[in-house]
Specification:
heterodimer, A: 83 residues, mainly beta, three-stranded antiparallel beta sheet, B: 413 residues, alpha+beta, Alpha-Beta Plaits, DNA polymerase, domain 1, Dna Ligase, domain 1, 3 domains, five-stranded mixed beta sheet, 16 helices, 12 strands, globular, binds magnesium ion
Chain lengths: 83, 413
């Protein structure tokens, strides 16, 4: 399986302490995916697509996904479409 | 109480960062090259697979590709190397505030107090190594010992992704058989001179007469004798961006002798690139430049000069360094090693003493700094026009047709 780094728009919730929490992702086709739950937040490298950042383990539509905050830009590990 | 000192060394730093950014590069022979498309570009760094083909730092891309046609060449991303360097240091600060950087990819850590003995030091070293791997995707070699010299030696003994302990008790049984020139501070020339006296390994150096070493090498002789006997007591010196180096230097030993000014200029330009980037990182400007030249008989000479205007520009530093070289070096012998060092660093914001009227030098300087600001842009901007206009090319040392259209890059020691 090949993966690619997909930068996404992210909706953020900022609390009174300035702590940020992603609440939704806008996919390339414009579809909005809500984040149901954040399971874990940690610093990590992406072994699949490269780079590193603050990694959120999030639940979206019942599936677990990694969402990375890489110095302010956000990306997910997308499955590459073979052509 | 015995000290617990770690020396953390990121393996193949530039090439590893490139692989961490682009996992498709993993498992392939990689060389980070100043100017991959030009046949005279040179190799700045490589991974273990590329080393396996006999590829050496500072050799030309042309010759590297001849050794390994499937070699993947990538351009350097200094800004990103800086970022990873900073991120690694941030991880170290979770364990101790006492961190002494040595170049971009190496640091000493003093864990005394936090680790109560060598065993705990090794356990923390493993934890640090695994954290860096998980968070940055980079591997470390860590040496654990009771002084800085042995910690550094330990980090060189097993690579990659390893922790090596040099214990205080009976350390010579672990390291006594290693070549004396493995010790930091014993370069090739000192090592060669030691060989003349029959000293090849650390155990021989340790048991040699201190007084004789003193007579042979001066203060340095006593120093290396202490190193070999585990008596280095230099502290891990806290350095942050405020107190960071009073100078920023970068040197390289060429695999083949440099025979002419063209070759030296190319190397100086590449060396200066990392110097310039470190200055940007530190927020400083250089008011002077030092060059150190070792010829192929291992004679070392050093020259320095002041800059008219303090600068962060890699190109300005390279130009001044090369002018200094051209004025000073007599070419009795070919050149083996070159170091370029920026000195007399002043803060970026510090007003420098310049004349009331903005000199051409200052304008030139500002222009060069602007040019250096954007790395992605650098190639286009370092196009042949700028290089042809450079004063350095007017001294006739470099034939016009051989104008080096080199992209500045950095070089690792
Ligand atoms: Mg290293």
């Amino acid at each position: 399986m090949k993966y690619e780094k997909i930068y996404v728009s992210v909706g953020l919730n900022v609390d009174t302490e300035g702590e940020i929490r992603p609440v939704a992702i806008r996919w390339r086709n414009g579809k909005i995916y809500e984040i149901d739950k954040i399971r874990q937040k940690t610093c990590a490298a992406s072994l699949k697509v490269g780079g590193r950042g603050i990694r959120y383990t999030v639940m979206i539509e019942g599936k677990e996904r990694y969402l990375f905050n890489e110095e302010g830009r956000w990306f997910v590990e997308g499955k590459a479409v073979s052509n | 109480m015995n000290r617990v000192i770690l020396h953390c060394d990121m393996n193949n730093f530039y090439a590893s960062v490139e692989c961490a950014l682009n996992p498709e590069l993993k498992g392939k022979p990689i060389a980070v090259c100043g100017d991959a498309e030009e046949r005279h570009g040179i190799v700045l760094a490589k991974n273990y697979i590329a080393s396996g083909y006999g590829i050496k730092t500072a050799e030309t891309v042309f010759s590297a590709k001849r050794k390994c046609p499937e070699l993947v060449t990538v351009r350097p991303h200094f800004d990103i190397y800086m970022r990873y360097s900073r991120l690694a240091r941030e991880i170290y600060t979770r364990y101790t505030p006492l961190i002494e950087p040595f170049g971009l990819d190496e640091c000493w850590l003093d864990l005394t107090g936090r680790a109560l003995n060598e065993g705990e030091g090794v356990a923390l070293a493993n934890e640090i190594k695994n954290t860096v791997k998980r968070e940055l995707g980079l591997t470390l070699s860590i040496g654990v010992s009771f002084n800085k010299v042995f910690a550094k030696l330990g980090s060189d003994m097993k690579k990659p992704d390893a922790v090596t302990l040099i214990p205080q008790k009976d350390f010579l049984s672990v390291i006594g058989g290693l070549s004396a020139s493995e010790l930091i501070g014993i370069g090739g020339s000192t090592g060669a001179r030691l060989n003349v006296y029959g000293i090849e390994i650390i155990a021989e150096l340790a048991s040699f007469s201190k007084n004789m070493l003193n007579q042979m090498f001066g203060k340095c002789g006593e120093q290396i004798w202490k190193y070999a006997n585990g008596l280095d007591d230099s502290p891990v010196t806290l350095r942050d961006t405020e107190a960071i180096d009073k100078s920023a230097g970068n040197g390289i030993t060429a695999p083949c002798d440099l025979e002419n000014g063209d070759e030296v200029w190319k190397v100086m330009l590449e060396l200066s690139e990392e110097v310039g980037h470190r200055l940007v990182l530190y927020g400083k400007r250089a008011a002077g430049v030092v060059i150190q030249i070792k010829d192929n008989a291992l004679n070392v000479k050093q020259w320095q000069c002041q800059l008219e205007c303090p600068t962060q520009s890699a190109y300005e530093i390279a130009k001044r360094a090369f002018r200094l070289f051209s004025e000073s070096y007599s070419w009795d012998k070919p050149v083996r090693a070159v170091t370029v060092r920026a000195i007399n660093l002043v803060y970026e914001g510090e007003p420098s003493q310049i004349s009331m009227f903005s000199s051409d030098g200052e304008k030139e300087n500002q222009r060069s700094e602007k040019i250096d600001k954007s790395l992605d842009d650098i190639r286009a901007r370092f196009g042949s026009d700028i290089i042809k206009n450079a004063a350095v090319l007017e001294n006739g040392k470099i034939p016009k047709e051989k104008t080096p259209s080199v992209l500045p890059g950095g070089i690792r020691k």
